[in-house]
Structure formats: structure tokens, C-alpha cells
Amino acid sequence: MRTNPARTVGADVARRTALAAQGFAEPRPAGPVTRRHLQRTLARTRLLQLDSVNVAVRAHYMPLFSRLGPYGRDLVDAAAWSHSARRPRLLVEYWAHEASLLPVEDWPLLQSGAKRPGWWRNYAHLAERQPGIVDDVLAAVKELGPVGAGTLENALGAGESRPPGVSWWERSEVKRICEYLFGLGALTTGTRVNFARLYDLPERVLPPEVLARHPMDRHEAARGLIRRSASALGVGTVSDLRDYYRLGPEDTRQAVAELVEAGELEPVTVRGWTQPAYRDPAAKVPRRVEGRALLCPFDPLIWERDRTLRIFGFRYRVEIYVPEPKREYGYYVFPFLLDGELVARVDLKADRAAGVLRVQGAFAEPGVDRARVTAELAAELRTMAEWLELDGVVAGERGDLAGPLAVELR
Hints:
The protein is α+β, with helices and mostly antiparallel strands. It is 38% helix and 18% strand.
């Protein structure tokens, strides 16, 4: 076992390490964003979280904009939900941090058992009680797929278009079994239409060489996932490393210990952190981080709220489920990153009927240069509105930046 004491690094070093690991230490492309840019960014973030909220822009599109600037969203759609010999599928859907798009080659790692079973395990009793429904759903997907849950419910429930030999099932049972099989990896997403998932069999979605790696040893997979977590985080605690893919605690502890022993993780002490930390030995530490970015609530830089507070001194909570009168900042709030610090937050809504990006609230962090923050924020909001094919930005009245921002946006 290694016995060398962990070296100590400052909190500012840890912050710049984390920003560089997530791709914020490089300038945005000067020209059009291409599939190569997408791959390079995904090599850093490792995944894109999916979320159904579409008040401003869907969550899986925003992290790429935050790092690369304006790009065609069909770049993600093609990488995730279509395949051709010229442009093979790059991404597959599965439960990682949450529901996510991740590189197809990572599928066997998450199917290994290293990842904790999610909420879908609650439907196991249905599959055990009525095993025939599992066979019938799989048979229907094989015949009809890629296919949506509604079509499957009709095919297996209404009886008018049931595949030959299948039984009649309750519509709600069909939906739950679809989610159960998706969680097990027996089904995946073949494509999406208007963001609705169409189920298909993994063998029709994933490359044969990826499927050939399944099943994978869970301990080997856990080490692979922790390597990816460490690369994406730059530096983090055991909890941070575990949370990126929501791994089991024992698998995480064992993987961390083995990677430390192999020299693939470096133990460090970060000043101000109460827990030991681990650094990716390949992580870069830029002298400074410059540039600006709006971050959606599910950006991997900030999705773990305790880590966000620890690294940036920025207390952040998603208030979607908070009753409106009790919200502190708003419904769907984007932190604003400027030169490596979180300096403001804005509650955004894409008002597609009016053709504008609405800033329903704008709030500065204590001690920032408000004039500069306002100017940079206004510029980034204009860029975001143009990317979303909206005609402009309209500032509301909530927050201490609302007035200055309204003036800047005139």
C-alpha cells in the first residue's frame, strides 16, 4: 500500500482544476461547431443529463452551448438517435447520474452491476408476478420497434393490433414494464420523436463490439467508471466520484483504493474541504480561467449542490417544485459563470409565442463588479437567444440586476 502523505492544494487550485476538467479553460471554437467538437466535449463531461423540463431549452443541449457557444442542436440529435455507416451513433440513453446520454462504449460499464439499481427496481414484483408481460413487451418491441409506450400499450392492451400470440395486459402495467426493462438494459431508446422515447432492443441500437463486452466484471467496471468520474471532475471527494454515475458505496470505495494503489488516482488534501480528495493525475491546472457561460440546472459542473457550494461558495437549489410564493430566485434558474466564478443567477424562459428570451429574475452574487457582470451577462443572453432562434431578450423586474440588465439590453 502507498504510504506517502497526501499533498495539500488550495481551494482555488481545486476550482480551476474542476473548471478545466469540464472544458471551461479553453476558448469557444472560432468557426462552426462540428461533430469533432461534440466528441471532444463529451470526452470531458462524459455524459449529458436528460430532463423533461423545456421552459428555456432541454437540459441535454445546454452544456454544449455553455462550452462551445452556438451550434446546431441536430448535431446532438444525430449523435444520439440516428445511425448511418458514414455517421455512426455516438451516444446511447441509460441511467447514469440520472437519465443521460452517454458514449455507446460506456454501456457495458453501466450494465455490470457496479451502478446501484434505480427506482425501476420497484417494478420487479410485477415482472415476477406476471412474467408473461415481460416476454410480450419484448416480443412487441421486436416486431414494432422502435416504438413508443403509447403504441405498445395499445398493442398489448386494446387488443386491436396485438402481435400474434401475446396476452392482454393493463396499459399501466405495460408502461411500468417498459421502464423496468429500460432500467435493466433489456430495452433502450431507438430514437426520439418530439422528445418522446421510442423503445428498441439493444442489439438493434448498439454496435456488436459493444454488446460483446457484456456482461462485464463489476469491479473492473467500477474502476472504469471512477476513472471517468475523476477525469470529468478533475478533483473530488469519494462522494463526488461516486455521485457522477450513482455507484454503490462499497464498489466505489474498493475502486478508489485500487486506483490509488495503481497510481491512477492521487490523494490530495484541499484546504477548506472537510473530506479527503482525489485528483486525476492527468488533470490540468490553468493559471486562470476566462470566459463566460450560462449553466443549466443539470450541467455536470454544478449538478451536485454540495460540491457547487464547496468549490464556488455558491448555494444553489432547483426550485421547480417549490410553490411560487416561496421561491427565492425563480422556477428555472441558470447560474452565470464569468472568469471561473459564479457571479449571478437568472431565471430564464423561452417565450416562443412572443419570440423572446425572458429574464424573469436576475440576481448578482455579493461582492461582484455589477457593471461588468451586467454587460457580460447581457451579451451572453443575446447569444443564447440567437442560438434558440428568438428575436431578442426581455428583462423583467425581479432581482437586483433586473434594472441594470434592462438598461444594458436596450
